[in-house]
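Thread: "does anyone have the structure for this chain?"

Original post by V.I.:
We have the sequence but no experimental structure in hand. Need at least a predicted one for the grant figures.
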Amino acid sequence: MGAVLSTLRLEQGVVLIQGPPGTGKTTVAAAIGFGFVHQCRNSKNSNSKVLACAFSNVGADNLAESLLKLGLKVIRVGKASATSEHLWEHTLDAAVANDPEAQKAQVEASLATVNLKPKRRSDTHLDRINREVATLAVKASIHASRVAATKALRECDVIVSTSIGAADSRLLASCGIYADEEEDDRRLKKNEINSKLGNSKRGAETPLRRLAPDNEPPISLPYVIVDEACQSVEPANLVPITATDSCRAVVLLGDPCQLPPTVKGSIGISPLATSLMARLAIELPHPVVFSAPSLPKSERDESFLNIRPTHQAVSHIKYKNRNNHQEPQKSYRKKFSGSLLLSVQYRMHPSIAAFSSAVFYDGLLSTPFFLAAYRPFPKALCSRLPLQNKSGFNNVNFCHYWWRE
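Reply from O.Q.:
Generated one for you, tokens below.
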């Protein structure tokens, strides 16, 4: 809750949220997206939308599902073949396919190109005319698809895509950015003429700003959320931040202690092996955290965190690093001081989470005590961990307690 409150009070800048396994990064991202949507609705610009991205298509689908559960209207941008089937009705391709004008333009383009002959040296005048007609029909079809896509994006609350998918040409066109120079120049000249003649108040205020394909003011994306940020290379994370040139606030969610970016290199370590979030978490100062209700210490299960085998594992890793002449590892809070930590996990049994908490997170990762009741400790491990901790906890008694017959 503290991470969500701290993020929603951000008007501009960057927030880093580090989430160990099972701490609910996607759920937190959806809650932040819900708050950003509320801020967009209360803003003066009615064309402001929230852009939510993830490194993989699976992550983007999970993010879209979490946002849909909150009652938000989501448009999933990306290849239809890489999107889950049950999300098809929420995709941008489905919106374009269901638009009557776009369908009509696609049919006309298909009919105009079906009878085209291969280009020859001795083209007849009729062949050249047919080729020009087909070219115009294809351009009209592309324009109709962009108009339909822009209409769908205006009606949604959140736009979801992969990090690279944020550079989709239809999304950029709705933001007034065109890949083809001819369309770009035409709309720029039209906007300049309107501003000089005084036909458009918005054009007079911003004469160089391009219009969207539907001749309306472009969509802006002031709030950007990037999930799985630590698994993506830095250029991929920069795509959703810089693609539309309207971003004000960025939220990066990930965990530098988990999988790093996958980079293939021949010699040495590539600079791309360090993600944008990991680099910022090291460089930025510790953010201001607003107070929020947290899990009371009496409800946290720290039994396995304090037993002797866990301490022995940490000591063994430190001893191994010294023998390999490695520098002493900094504490978690000193190393990643610029990020907020989601410190409560709900996925693993406390006995499994204890190792990660002790080795990577300085014991800050905790588990709710009620979770152990639903996931009993295995009998086979009772004889392996019979030692008492400092508070007198005994694993044998613990096992007998949960495995009563």
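V.I.: this helps a lot. The two ends are 39 Å apart (CA to CA).
O.Q.: and Residues 297-402 form one domain.
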